Structures are given as structure tokens and as C-alpha cells.
Amino acid sequence: MKTAGRMIVFAAMVMAIALALAGCRAEPPQALGTLEWERITVPAPVAEKIVRIDAHEGQRVAAGAPLLQLELTRTQSQLAAVQAQARQAEGALAELQAGPRREAIAQARASLAAAQAQAADARAYYARLQPLGRRKLVAAADVDRARAAAGQADAQVRAAQAALLELERGTRREQLAQGESAFAAAQAQAATQAVALQKLALVAPRAGVVDSLPYKLGDQAPIGAPLAILLVGDAPYARVYVPEPIRADVRVGRRALVFVDGRAQPLAGVVRTIRSEPSFTPYYALIGKDAARLSYLAEIELRGQDAMQLPAGLPVRVEFIQDGRGD
Question: Does Coiled coil count among this protein's keywords (predicted)?
């Protein structure tokens, strides 16, 4: 009985020593954080009502898959208006390129001939009044009016000649350049409006999982509001806060073990980014005395097929592998 009692006491002492040694053993450098996916947002291009929803939250979609459809009526009307303006500008340019019509040139020539006839008549009348005026047979005022009428008729002839010459020479290069610019601007506006119309049918820019659809059928979101949020990428990553005491040993490319809450086996990872400036540490990343220290935000890229099915938001703990440990 005494021997058995001694064995029990000895076993208890061994257990106490083992527990004491385990409590004194230093924990490996670690950092806490959460599991995250790359997120992309599909914003509202215009403030229009949602008329159809083609996807649901949690659905995996391919690149280009339809997500939402916004109301088209107003944008279609705006597109029709700018397209009409483009056709008008095209017609104006074609008119400039064709130059004056033959009928307009013939009309200008007829106007010149009429002006020349009137000028000849005015000059003849003035010529008849001149000798009568010298002999005081007509008033001097009549002679002056005849002289002015002859001069005005000659001016009208010169104006008609200039108008005919302008038509015969055709459209100026500067006018053609202005017409071409106006047509190009109208085409650009029509193309922009056509793109705006296409954007009303929202599609997935990349393959991924629909994480959130903040607005419902019939809602009208403001411009720029997120209509759909997608999780994209091949695998999630761990976003952790590295305590200041181990910051010097953590660098891009260093291997790590990522322990995900709810999984017995850790996942292999590699540090892909780490901030150079310290940041505020969330409460869940505070570890003992590290609560009073600085921390640095880092991202750990996960490797392996097991990580692909993990959801975002899970708590993680990261241990950084020392040189010569692990693969």
C-alpha cells in the first residue's frame, strides 16, 4: 500500500513539473486577423430603377454573366436624341462638301446681270443730265441724285460679282473643317450614350461569387452606389495585424502557417504584402502585452485546394515559419 501511495505521489509530481514546463515554454511569433476575399463592386452608372435581378447572393457567376437590369426608357430617349443630332451634323457636312447648287450659281449670275443693267441705265441717265445741268436747264440737286444713283448701281454690280465668285469657288476649307468637327463631336456623344445604355444591363466584370445585392427589385440607387459586391480570386487570404516586436522578421515572401477557426490542420501561406506604417489594432488582434504596442497590417496568401471553399470573415491565427522549419 505504501509503495502504491509513493507511485501516485511521484506521478503527481511529474505531471506538475510537466505542466510547469509547458507554461514556461514561449509561444511562437503569431498574429491574429480574419479571412478575406478580394472584393469588387459594381456601381450604379445612373440613378434608374431596378427592373430585373438576374443573380442571387451566394451564387457563383462567370465573367460577363448578367446581374441586374436598370430601366432603359430615359437613356434610350437620350440616345435617340443624340443620334438625330449626329445625322443632322452629317447632313450639314455633306452639304458643305457638295458645295453650292447649280441653281444657286445661276441665280447669282441672273442677279449680276440685273445689277449690271440697272447700273448701265443709271449711268446713261446721269450722262444725259450732266449737259443739262451745266446749262442750268435742270436743278443741281437732280444731277447730284443721278450721280449717286449711278454710283450705287455700280456698287450693287460689284456685290453681285463677289457673291457669284463666292459660289463658284465653293466651300472654304475652314468651313469643311468646322463641319467635320461638329460631325465627329455628335458621333462621339452618340457613342457615349450608347455605352451608357449598355451599362444599364449590369454584368459581372470577373468570375466570382455574389456576396451582396444591397438593393432590391424596384429600388432606385443613387449614382455610384454599389448595386452588387462580388468575391473574386482563386482563394481567400488572411489579413492580420503583425505586432511590432516581430515586425522586423516578417517580410514579403516569408512562409506562414494559417490556423483557421474550426479547422484542425493549418493552411500553408506566404506573406504577399505588409504595411510599412503602423495602424490601429482591432480589439480581437490584441495579444497580452501587445495591446500597448504598434501593429502592421499584413496579407497572407493561402495556398492549396482546401482554402478555396472557406468563407470570408473567419478568425485566423498566423504563425510565421522560422528558417529551416516546414516546407
Answer: yes
For residue 306, give the DSSP letter.
G
Alpha-carbon span 249 to 255, nearest angstrom: 11
The tens digit of pLDDT for each residue in 17-54 reads 344 444 444 566 788 899 999 999 999 999 999 999 99
Distance (Å, whole) CA 40 – CA 199: 16
Measure the CA–CA gap between 278 and 244, rounded to whole angstroms.
8
* DSSP structure class, residue 92: H
pLDDT tens string 125-160: 888 888 888 888 888 888 888 889 888 988 998 998
The 3 state secondary structure assigned to 185-227 is: HHHHHHHHHHHHHHCCEEECCCCEEEEECCCCCCCECCCCCEE
**Mean pLDDT throughout 305-320?**
85
Looking at the chain, which runs of residues are DSSP E strands?
30-43, 50-53, 60-61, 66-70, 201-203, 208-212, 226-243, 255-260, 267-274, 295-302, 315-320
Q: Output the nine-digit C-alpha cell for 106.
A: 445661276
Burial label for 111, CB within 10 Å (0-12, 13-18, 19+), is middle
